[in-house]
Amino acid sequence: MEETAVGAQSGRGKAEGGGTSAPESLLLERLGTRCIVLVGMPGAGKSSVGRRLAKRLGLPFMDADEEIERAAGMSIPEIFASRGEVEFRDGEKRVMIRLLQGGPIVLATGGGAFMNADTRAAVARLGVSVWLSADLGVLLRRVRKRTDRPLLAEGDPAEKLARLLAARGDTYALADLTVESRDATHEAVVDDVLAALGTHFQRKAEGQASPAPSSAP
Q1: What band does 161 get if pLDDT is binned at 50, 70 and 90?
Q2: What percentage of the chain carries pLDDT values higher than 90?
Q3: What distance separates the 2 farthest-apart alpha carbons in the chain?
Q4: 27-47 core/surface letters (b: 16 or more CB in 10 A; e: else)
Q5: Which residue has the higher pLDDT, 93 or 207?
Q6: I need a surface site. Which of 25, 103, 176, 177 has the fewest CB within 10 A?
């Protein structure tokens, strides 16, 4: 993990006339053909934040879970029930790699996608990863509003979510950036993501522009 932004508002909005602002235009220039890849737990807000982030930047938004459902012709709970998690994860990896090759886009991933080493390698090569981190209480309040999460469908959701968070947290922390998905408006979290991305690309640019150390005595 390179950088962490926790509740830092960027204050970047649309420029007059509906286009991107100057800082966002610079961010897009530095992004190039790479994807902005949102990773994290179920309930972290990857799709909700991702759609708004894509709109702010004028980029296409893709939801990996929706693309998996479209490719399979059935819902994710149906895939889990009829084909099992192993086959689902294999299809998820193929869909992720295909989507990453279509950048620049904002891509929201399923909660388990970043656990796959091949997928992480593809994300590192073709994108910039952002972990939307949230504490257990926030996640639980959000996931209870939905019934389409197969790994949380049976038993105690709080216990299952806690186990998933403990198992996945260290891997999510491998993402390029970490942004807290806090109890705030989605737009506020988008501001935080934009601020983190701007800082990330600025540091990259400064690093590339720095002169190489002299070998002269």
Answers
A1: confident
A2: 51
A3: 69
A4: beebbeebbbbbbbbbbbbbb
A5: 93
A6: 25
Rounded to 10°, the helix 117-126/76-100 angle is 40
Whether pLDDT at 176 is above 50: yes
Positive or negative CA dihedral for 71, 104, 204, 135? negative
Q: How far is CA 101 from CA 89, 91, 95, 127, 172, in A?
A: 19, 16, 10, 9, 21
Q: Residue 16: is its pLDDT beyond 60? A: no
Alpha-carbon distance 157 to 140, whole Å? 8
pTM of the entire predicted model: 0.81
Q: Roughly what angle, to the nearest 10 degrees, separates helices 46-57 and 186-209?
A: 60
Find tokens 């990259």 and name the residue.
Answer: 204
- What is the DSSP secondary structure assignment for residue 133, as one 8-state letter? E
* Encoded tokens for 145: 């509003």
Residues 65-76 have a mean pLDDT of 89
| Cβ neighbours for 151, distance < 8 A, ≥ 6 positions apart | 42, 111, 112, 160, 164
Q: Is 154 helix (H, G, I), strand (E, B) or coil?
A: coil
Cα–Cα distance measured from residue 9 to residue 191, given in angstroms and rounded to the nearest whole number:
6
Q: What is the mean pLDDT of residues 165-170?
A: 93
